[in-house]
Amino acid sequence: MDAFPTSRGSRQAVGDTPSLRSRKSRVALLLVASVLSGCATHRGQSLADLPAKHSVRAERLVIHSDSPIEKKSPIITELAELRLDILSTLNLPESKRPVVVYLFRDERRYTEYMRERFPSLPVRRAFFVGTASELAVYAYHGDNLATDLRHEYTHGVLHSSLKNLPLWLDEGLAEYFEPPRDRHHVNEEHVARLAAAVQGGWQPDLERLEQLTSVGEMQAMDYHEAWAWTYMMLQSDNGDAGKLVDYVHACKTEALPQRLSQTVASTLTTGKTRLINQITSLDSGVKAAEGVIPAAFERPSAGKASLE
Ligand SMILES: [Zn+2]
């Protein structure tokens, strides 16, 4: 499997941002057979325990945690609002499937569990793992918890009713719903990186994004661009928002939907121009100091591989 994007523009953009090289991207992971077989090797062994000391259930959200968590805690309220926001934005029906969050007390315990339970997975700050039996989020208490939960819970809500969401759109939507509500779906990190790339001659390329099918292929620039296409379409008033929602609905079934770029082919060229103009416009209103590290990026201290 190819490990890296082939877009020259993307490579140049990433190469122009050395601070990103130590970050590895983190995405939702739909559990695959290879992971399951890896887990099977642990049968009979003593795994690190899942958080189970405290449990809270709030509508379609279940949290099992090491530490006490109040049902009226701000993060539970926020995730409940986020779910409604996702469903209304995408006109999706309520699903009966809950998203189960396993909240570890600290990074060390989380890392130990993930290493034992999912030995083939790379080190990441949090994970969404969707299987036929459970939509699970694994995370730990830390400075980025709220950001991580918004991102991973979005994956969970999406996967509760969609079966064939392309990787780029899965991540684009998670990035779109990741910022706090008062940011209005804008993450300054994405805007700043894309604006710098645009200045360096980068061009958006939806068809290239659509060819990414595995976690390992997703680079930081791919997350930026996935957010940008999602943001531009959902915020548009030219009909693209409806096209994107229709496309998401086509992902409800087992059959693979047509690529979105084929669906919006007639507007794709102007879409690239609009995307660049929107990034430039957003960048002019963004202060660098307000930037936060998107949940899709691994914590810097754990970086082992560069982005190139
Ligand atoms: Zn993700």
Task: Please outline the helices and strands.
Elements: H1 8-15, E1 29-30, H2 33-40, E2 54-58, E3 61-65, H3 74-90, E4 99-104, H4 107-117, E5 127-130, E6 135-140, H5 145-159, H6 167-177, H7 188-199, H8 206-210, H9 220-234, H10 240-250, H11 260-263, H12 265-284
Parallel strand pairs: 1-5, 3-4, 4-6
Antiparallel strand pairs: 2-3, 5-6
Bound molecules: zinc ion (ZN).
Q: What is the CATH fold-level name? A: Neutral Protease, domain 2
Our count of helices gives 12
> How many DSSP E strands?
6
The residue-averaged pLDDT reads 80
Which spans of ≥5 residues are poorly predicted at pLDDT below 50? 1-28, 30-45, 299-308
Gyration radius, in Å: 19 Å
Structure class = alpha/beta
The share of residues in extended strands comes to 5-15%
CATH architecture field: Orthogonal Bundle
Shape: globular
Distance between the termini: 16 Å
Ions, cofactors and other bound molecules: zinc ion
List the strand order in the largest sheet.
Answer: 1-5-6-4-3-2
How many strands, what sense, and barrel or not for the largest sheet?
A: 6 strands, mixed
Can you identify the CATH class?
A: Mainly Alpha
Overview of this protein structure:
- By secondary structure, the protein is of the alpha/beta class.
- It has one domain: Orthogonal Bundle (Neutral Protease, domain 2), CATH 1.10.390.
- Helices cover 44% and strands 9% of the residues.
- It contains twelve helices and six strands.
- It has a six-stranded mixed sheet with strand order 1-5-6-4-3-2.
- Strand 3, helix 3 (74-90) and strand 4 (99-104) form a beta-alpha-beta unit.
- Helix 3 packs parallel to helix 5 (145-159), helix 7 (188-199) packs across helix 9 and helix 9 packs across helix 10 (240-250).
- Mean pLDDT is 80; it is low at 1-28, 30-45 and 299-308.
- The structure holds zinc ion (ZN).
- Residues 27-28, 151, 155, 171, 174, 296 line the site of zinc ion (ZN).
